[in-house]
Give the backbone structure.
Amino acid sequence: MITHDVVIVGSGLAGLRAAIEMAGKVDVAVVSKVYPSRSHSGAAQGGVAAAMANSSDDSVESHFFDTVKGSDYLADQDAAEIMTRDAPVTITEMERLGCVFSRDEKGRIAQREFGGHSHPRACYAADRTGHALLHTLFEQSMKHKAAVTYYSEWYLLSLIYEEGSARGITMMNIRTGELEVVRAKTVLFGTGGYGRAFKITSNAFACTGDGVMTAYRAGIPLEDMEFVQFHPTGLYGQGILMSEAARGEGGYLVNGKGERFMDKYAKSKMELAPRDIVSRAEQTEINEGRGIGGKDFVHIDLRHLGREKIIERLPQIRQLAIDFLGVDCIDKPIPIQPTAHYSMGGIPVDVDCQVITDEKKTKARGFFAAGECSCVSVHGANRLGTNSLLDACVFGRRAGKAALDYTLSARHESVNEAAELGKARKRLDALLSTPETESANDIRNELKETMSNHAGVYRGAEGLLVAKAALKLLRERFKSVRVTDKGKLFNTELVEALELSNMLEYSEIIVEGALARRESRGAHARTDFPKRDDANWLKHTLARKNADGSVSLGYKPVVITKYQPEERKY
Amino acid sequence: MAEVRFLVSKYNSETDAKPRLQEFRLDPPQGATLLDCLNLIKWKLDGTLSFRMSCRSAICGSCAVRVNGHARLACKTQAADAVIDGRVTIEPLGNMTLIRDLVVDLEPFWASVEKVRPWLVPDDSKKYERERLQSHHDQLKIDAASTCIMCASCFSDCNVMEVDPKFLGPAALAKAQRFVFDTRDAEKWDRLELLGQIHGMWDCTHCAECSTRCPTDAKPLERITELRRAAMAAGMTDNNAARHVLGFRESIGGFKGIGGSGMLNENYLPVRSMGLSIGGILSLIPVGLRMFARKKNPPLIPHVIEKVGEVRKMFRRFDEYNKEGEK
């Protein structure tokens, strides 16, 4: 058994930011299934929001309101206020740590327009802002290497959570196959989102909700899991992200009839409406036969921006479209479609990132979560672009501070190492000794097809019930899944099977939550309940695992401090 | 696309003495990348095939492998572009120890990057309210290096690395450029000193393999060249490689009012490179004697080329250009 004061799981922006906050003050370990620079935070492109007011008369107040309105009033306003208030200092800190930002003519951090934001608020590094931020923290992690222990390429197997307190984790060394228990006073998850369950997704292969599901299995409820953001501009066929910066810089969305169709859906903001609205607009155009050539995609046209602007501000997306579709956006429009992108739901936490375990906001001792795996909730039913990098930086920082305070006065609680290892071993052995009649690839493909068709941009009771039945069958089939690799070294087939088990289980939670929520709000759009219903549904879902493995749903109120819900128009 | 023969390296360090190429036949779907193909092989033909991957959009740097002998990102390479005579060979990265199939031990790579102290050392410690200013022009100087995704393709295919595992390597040097040229960093000179040591920037042989393999704009060789120029401009010329560069310049273009010959003086250059090192100069003698014995020695009195004035004029222009650049 390994012992540390704090074990952080996840080495993206939230996890690394928290680690740096604690480095040298307590004994910190960072566990990740990838090396830190491979974390999915690095794939974020367009920017990170902060009311720096470098190129406008922006204010924290305005950012706060835009975030709440963008969330379709499901955001907890105390949390959204903290995030937007902490934003400028957090970004300033990242700059001081060495982040390479694009600069304006006065040498300040450059800021651009983004969907749903009323001011140019997105601080950016060309169209690789996540990469710039992640590598800044990766650099800092090397600086603090003596003070932080890194377990890279270790896979999280379980959270040890007993009598209301987190005591450690079990994990597997991917490189050697060895199992290990880490005992810690404090466990902090920054494990990212769960977007891999959809056929068209911008998410990395790694985004399989491992942390979220580990918490769920340990008895922690999950909040608002039905809210999955579909990004309007995924590269056609793959879903690879084409940054919203393409629209922020002035790109047009065009349908098969050559029309800029957004004037029908958001007359004043056009392409810069929030993502849920733009994705629905595209899906409606496609569903009504106005995709390009009647097919399931539309175009984003950047040609009028000109070569120079494209090369300076959007170099990465230009290259991606060239590499993957052979399309150079300087000369041709890029085929795009909505793509599963961001998980608004996750592990419920308070504004200091401490995990809460019920409707009464009872705190889990020694358990914190930050970034996409958590649900504070700052994004409510729909996240605004550039608020995710901000969320990870702000709450990674806050989580680090709060977890440090907690750890300084906490002690290690008892952990039964043999029992924990036994449970982990049993789970792996079960996977390695099934009847081997089912292909993991088939199950995964059917899962993704099911989720995209029935729990995607639009959802209805009929489709959700189909999905529910299909998921049940898939989970049954998974019990016979084939894992042919019985070896110990770098057994990625085994890791993928573990990931698939997570995907299957959280998909069920998404579907249950979506089925129950008989309204349309933000990214959750019910064809059979097309209106928002504040009287009955202005509340957060809490999904809990029953003893028999099924999902039970509870709800907790939304925190409303300043802005009363009103109709959302753009 | 027609059926393609994928020759993929398989190896398990627990059971196999050495890696072998295993053939898989696959008809890659339209637009498939090599990563798509590797996944199809893994998911349909051989579940035990092991490789790293994550983002599939060329930003995480996980899936670098050798394709037909050269390092590339599998996710960024269209299968159609990699097929030669109906075949593609996929092997692990070089210059690192193999663990399994296409997975190598990356620890030496990370260790090389850490050696250059790859974090900003701020130029002040005063309290701040706002971000530091940096002009667009100054930011562009570190823009290219900052696009590095740490995929280790350059490290894998670096020829110097192959003979000198202690060499810092292209990725670490490109990373170092990003700090040496960062107007916000306080350690520029210390960094150049560090990079100027043995196994550092002067050990690169300009083969350009790193920049050719680099999947981003980081292009290590260009960054190494910028570092060397910065070191020379700062007068950090007390080493063989810098003196070698100066020797080139002096013998061809002249210096301090003495005109160059317009061509390389191969007697002058080695001696100049050794500086004041007696041992170094003595070490040249056996080579010189062997050249003499085989009549390969350059003429003792240097030949001056025709139109040498044109060459000298060009060098004067370079000097003026450099002075303007400094302004």
Summary: Strands of chain B lie at 4-10, 20-26, 64-67, 70-73, 87-91, 98-100, 103-104, 254-255, 258-259.
